[in-house]
Amino acid sequence: MSSRRPAVLLAVLGLALVLAGCGGLASSTSQAPDGGPALAEVEPLTDPLSHVGESTAVLGDTSISPVADGPQPELPVTVTDAQGSEVTVHDVSRILALDLYGTTARTVFELGLGKHVVGRDASSGFAEAADLPLVTANGHDLNGEAILELSPTVIITDTSLGPWDVMLQMRDAGIPVVVVDSHRSLDTAGDLIRQVAAALGVPAEGEKLAERTTTAVEEMIEQIAAIAPTGDARLRMVFLYVRGQSGIYYMFGTGSGTDSLITALGGIDVATEIGWDGMRPLNDEGLVAADPDLILMMSGGLSSVEGVDGLLERVPALAITPAGQHRRVVDMADTEILSFGSNAAQVLEALAVAIYAPDAA
What we know:
Structural class: alpha/beta
Shape: globular
CATH architecture of the largest domain: 3-Layer(aba) Sandwich
Order of helices and strands: HEEEEHEEHEHEHHEEHEHEHEHHHEHH
Strand content: 5-15%
Radius of gyration: 20 Å
Number of helices: 14
Helix content: 25-40%
């Protein structure tokens, strides 16, 4: 536990599966009307610990920047997907890339194959995909009829969207379905890109995009480290997943992906510190033991409890913590904050601005 203040005593599931099982994400698109500032352009707080008030992290430029212009896929290609299935892809002229965060679709566009994408999920709200027909209903439910109408030649997905019977139906219809890994973190962003690229026959472009993403993340972490407090002065952070309408309150810990996010943001992941593995229902004892200075949340989750006031009312133990006392809640669009894709560095930058220069955010 931190030496700054006394602490109270107190099978990781796949991140996307837990989120889907906990009511899913907001169906709004991820792109904000006005982009947030770059980290280098803002004046950070001199004492982040003393700041009072909440802030919202907003991405800056979210436009696609392909690593190649019209790459020529090497086909056919046979891959063993994340479920251990051997899948052969002969044709990538009509691609569907579907998951809870829109990460796989963005990856396909960044690989230079965006013109071949024929539909989208509700989370793929970036401008280049916004006009494509939806194949999800009621937010994030796969619509088999809508998918078949688009005659896809390949589907790239993970297990975060359901019902899974729809994907089985697609396989029965003869459509190659490649399942990529649903476990997401900053450490796996490059691997996800390589999986998508391999399935589409563009491994070289995948390696280039993975390297670009990794380099950008590393550079952003260095920028954040230059302004973030060090040692015991670091902000103690925790990620809460909330759906107030359903009475769902989860705290995310080791292996959930949020641990890598908080570490990259220069914070102390207090859920990991108290031995909170994976994603588990929140309880007062765990929250007080975590003793956070700052709460990270999805914007949809914060909205579902009617803002910080509603969160404090529904989670009374939060008022005992520095985060509650200072109303230190940083939220970000549901489809962005845990996307862990090719724009991971942008996500880190927007969150860092909201944390360390909240007035600018």
